[in-house]
Write a structure and sequence with these properties.
Layout lengths: L1 E15 L2 E8 L9 E7 L5 E12 L2 E6 L8 E7 L6
Antiparallel strand pairs: 1-2, 1-6, 2-5, 3-4, 3-6, 4-5
Length: about 90
């Protein structure tokens, strides 16, 4: 399953051992808690990016995505969802 959206917020979740994890909020999301997947985007340089989604969680009614690579607010993405349990 896939859909398009725009990144509207990003925040650093944590730093550990020289690695960072970020939280992304999309304008529109079809992700559910427990899903994984990939966000595909095109950088300003024209390079295509694939950002794996490490986890999905809900906070105050919003669906946040946990990732290791940040995407700037305003970035258009194509989201590919992988549902746990085989649901589509």
């Amino acid at each position: 399953m896939s859909f398009s959206s725009v990144v509207v917020d990003i925040r650093e979740e944590r730093r550990s051992g020289g690695r960072q994890q970020w939280q992304l909020l999309l304008e529109h999301s079809e992700f559910r808690v427990g899903d994984t997947g990939v966000l595909e985007a095109v950088a300003r340089s024209g390079v295509r990016l694939a950002v794996p989604i490490l986890g999905v969680y809900e906070e105050n009614g919003e669906i946040w995505l946990r990732v290791e690579k940040p995407l700037m607010a305003g970035t258009v993405v194509i989201a590919q969802i992988e549902r746990t349990g085989g649901d589509v």
